[in-house]
Each structure stands twice: as C-alpha cells, then as structure tokens.
Amino acid sequence: xxxSKSAESIHCCDGDRTMSSVDTSTSTRLFVGGLAYALTxxxxxxxxxxxxxxxxxxxxHEKLSGxxxxxxxxxxxxxxxxxxxxxGLQGKSMLRRAVTCEWAVTTAERGAGDExxxxxxxxAGAKSKLxxxxxxxxxxxVLREMDAEDAKFAAASSxxxxx
Length: 163
Description:
Layout: E1 2-5, E2 9-14, E3 17-23, E4 29-33, H1 41-49, E5 54-58, E6 71-76, H2 79-89, E7 93-94, E8 97-98, E9 100-103, H3 107-110, H4 132-161
Antiparallel strand pairs: 1-2, 2-3, 4-6, 4-9, 5-6, 7-8
C-alpha cells in the first residue's frame, strides 16, 4: 500500500486502485500501528496521555486467542492534541518496535462500507457498556491503582534491601 500525506489530507492507494483523498485538517483520530504484542492498552494510554485528553481508545484483540492485534486507534479531544501525538510517536520505538502513527481514515471515508468497531477498553473484542467518558475514567482509575501498587512495591523493595 502506498501512502502520501500532507498537512491537509491523506491519500491512500492500493496498487492502481485509488481508495480516497481525505481531509484530516480537523481529524482527532489516529491509527497507531507496529505495536509490540506485549504492549498493553494501559501502557499505550499512558504514552498517549502525554499529548492530551483521550476521548476514545480502540485496542483490538484477536477474538479466539485474546492477544493484541498490534495496532490501535486513539481519538483525542482536539485536532492539536492528535497532531502533537502524531508528531511525537511517529517512528519512535516502543518495546523495541518502531511505531507507525497516521491519521485514521474510516472505512466510510475510504468508501469500503460501514465502520463497525467497539470501544477498545473492554478488550478481547467485547463491546463496553460504558460511554467513552466513563470508560476513560475507569481506565484512569485502574492506572492510578497500578501506580499506587508500583509505589508500594518500590517502597517495600527499598526497605527490604536496606535491611
């Protein structure tokens, strides 16, 4: 697949067949690919939150195995936040894999039919019953709990090593 990007649009073509030329000047949604299978959605969320407020995260998993598929869609509150993430992540290494970051183009924009996807925080292909804001709040709560556990572990490790 050949892709050429400008600040205003992304033009995708597959061989001789042109799919579309889509205006991304107001887009807030990114495709993040080349992700290591060991990378969790929480780790990706932590990285992406550095660039702004995340409105939605779709982190698909294989239905049978439950393993991550190696890509995600991240939607930000504003175009500026998404653009900052695009610039900040493109080509960077995460878990020893080069990340690809591009403006996301929906299947409707490509002319390939309807887009059917779930919000990814539920994981393993399941659809969340929470709205995007509630889902993000739940993920942020889990991240805070993970940080608290990390702090407890670090404190316990340092006190055990000083004995």
